[in-house]
């Protein structure tokens, strides 16, 4: 059984890291079960292991943390659902690429509950939506905006960090970084897409989609 924790308010990033470190160690040692932690952070930027200094364009805007997860720079803040995923791949499947694919499929299935078609793109981390309501890019291709980010870390085949989905964050807060190092595309949210989705609505969709995404056949 996976334990689900939903925390109200804004959780300090340092506190989240401390919790994950302890829980992952306990899972690896067989002292605790797997866990999905749903929360929001105050405004901050995190740098993954592939972050480039030039992609932090406004370093004094919000606190910046070294996350030690995969990926580049990302933003967390109010109105964004963060799901920290602490799962034991020793008991599931020791395949990092497959695990990331399952995370992507989980997000896509949850978004589908709101009739949003999330997609993945080669060479671009995260989940994207096509924006036919916006002008195409300079190359004539349809505009695509990022709605969810994914970044994980594994220790003894137990995962931590996870995903973030934009429900109704201040999209202007992304301007202080180049999100995930991608300059040619924008960022969106469920509310920006015109959908009156609440955090509770998304949490329900995430729980409903989880079992199929992480089932043996998922």
Summary, kept brief:
With 218 residues, this protein is of the alpha/beta class. The protein has helices at residues 13-28, 96-112, 199-213, and strands at 3-10, 35-40, 44-47, 64-66, 73-76, 80-86, 119-121, 124-130, 144-155, 158-166, 186-187. The strands form 2 sheets. Strands 1, 2, 6, 7, 8, 9, 10 and 11 form an 8-stranded mixed sheet that branches.
Could you outline the blueprint of secondary structure elements for this entry?
Elements: E1 3-10, H1 13-28, E2 35-40, E3 44-47, E4 64-66, E5 73-76, E6 80-86, H2 96-112, E7 119-121, E8 124-130, E9 144-155, E10 158-166, E11 186-187, H3 199-213
Parallel strand pairs: 1-2, 3-4, 9-11
Antiparallel strand pairs: 2-6, 3-5, 6-10, 7-8, 8-9, 9-10
Structure description:
It is a single chain. Strands 1, 2, 6, 7, 8, 9, 10 and 11 form an eight-stranded mixed β-sheet that branches. Strands 4-3-5 form a three-stranded mixed β-sheet, with no helix packed on it. The mean pLDDT is 92. Helix 2 crosses helix 3. It starts with a strand and ends in a 5-residue tail after the last helix. The protein has three helices and eleven strands, in the order βαβββββαβββββα. It has 218 residues and is of the alpha/beta class.
Keywords:
alpha/beta, 218 residues, eight-stranded mixed beta sheet, three-stranded mixed beta sheet, 3 helices
